[in-house]
Amino acid sequence: MKLSDHEKAMYDGEHGRAKARAMDLLVRYGEALGAERLVETNNVAGAFNASTPSVQPIARKGMEHVYSELNLDSDEVVEVPHMVAHTCQLITGIDNDNWELQGVDRSLLDMQRENEKFLGRRGVNMFATCTPYQVGNVPVKGEHCAWMESSAVIYCNSVLGARTNVEGKESTGAAALTGRIPYWGFHITENRRGTHLVELDIEVDEMMDWGLLGYYLGEVVGEDIPVVNGASRRPDLIKLKHFGAAAASSGGVEMYHIPSITPEANSIEEAFGGRKVEGIFRYGVAERRETYEKLQSATEKKVDFIMLGCPHNSIDQMSLIAHLLEGKRIHPDVALWVHTPRAIKQVAERNGYIDAIKEAGGVVMSDTCPAISRRLPSGTRVIATDSAKQAHYLPAITGVQGWFGSVGDCVDAALTGTWSGRA
Amino acid sequence: MDIAAETKNEAIVLKGRKVVGGRAEGEALVTTETISGWGGINERTGAIIERRHELKGVSFAGKVLVFPGAKGSSGWSAYFHMTRLNGVQPAAMIFTRMTTKIALGAVVTRVPAVTDLDQDPLSVIETGDWVTVDADAGTVTVIKKKPG
Fold first, then answer.
1. Could you check whether the bond before residue A370 is cis, i.e. omega within 30 degrees of 0?
2. Nearest-Cα residue of chain B relative to residue A70
């Protein structure tokens, strides 16, 4: 791989051991990809936190060990300097306030907090959410980023027109210290064009509709770039956030175009940019129905846990849930957890949404989610969620049965203890 | 198994490109389905846990994993990284579709890995075949398992 003089100097250790190890990882990674060079980035969103039991043995030796091993893939333990790129922490495993409800040991909480201090001093901003674009990190069109979190990556590429591949814990760790990431994949204009055309034969409008369409797309295009044509109504942040997360769960979709809505496609022609259309899919009643069925892994109607807010809820979603719960009380056998970024939680608190949810018996969680933390209320057997992503992952990770539906279906289930959602 | 004798008679050699250097051999575990890291594998056992995956419940620990590549969460590399720290990583990786997840994942798992092979490894190699990956040479040598 070709390195600039500054990159060579970092690689050779002239800027310290941490940057040398970071460059070593970036070169190994870039060569594995077949990348010709690195590109400068000043926008890194990664997973730096130490909040799981598996990290504890490493964290006991010191937070430098955690960063060296898990964020740089380095056997040599290096002193970690201040990040050079603007860097933020994505979602973590522990809610700093609701940790007891999650069933987290005090020792794990202490580890996370100590780790946050370590990272905070070095310039890792503690957004602690899967949706950095909701709380202040909104890259501009064309900006080269190094982001993790598949649902954030697809949003970054498709909705914002910024450029990132799906990075990992180690590559973001190295990018934050060097301001570099391999120039490959979605950093390159030609690789951002559409590959498959998807024609909508039915109206896709509600958030649940967009989740189903996303889940379908991931299944049919895998890692390719769908161009979605025929949306009669303009989707907003909430719908596209859910849509992208679903497409990145059932498949590996990292970019899509919706002509006249997303920024790199004013038309179908521009979306494909001369690239050959590799396939055409039609999404109609049958496809929607089949996708809905695929997402249901539950058979028992009696539910005991309702999970809302994956990806983390916007303030408008918090408002809707508060409104649906206003003056009501959830079923005594049900736990309801609603997830939103900490920054949005503060606004929701001011608006009285948190009180409305709490008074109904729900819990507002930040910093984490059940899939990431692998923590559910004890004894949970059957869950319901408005997130295609959680419906995909939670049964696999935790062995629970899962229902997927609209936020209304999920709030109903929370109030009655019984699932009665419909496609 | 007498590898030398077997090789002389039945070896199939595929040529490709090094992703991560090194040489390893082992029994093949083949799937035509992509694999999720985070949420798709148990990093303490190396088993596939994805609900509708054809290898659900099967561990790749010590096997030469032959698969199309990675899908799903960006935690892919971190989870394969953990399989190495837990000693349940695959012996080698052979895959067909390059992505950042699989590239970084293979790098941090630190096992020999190859791609861009001149024959489709997913049709040439079957589970149970004995496979040698010489990533530096870019070769994959396959000895078919005996029928039955």
1. no
2. B78
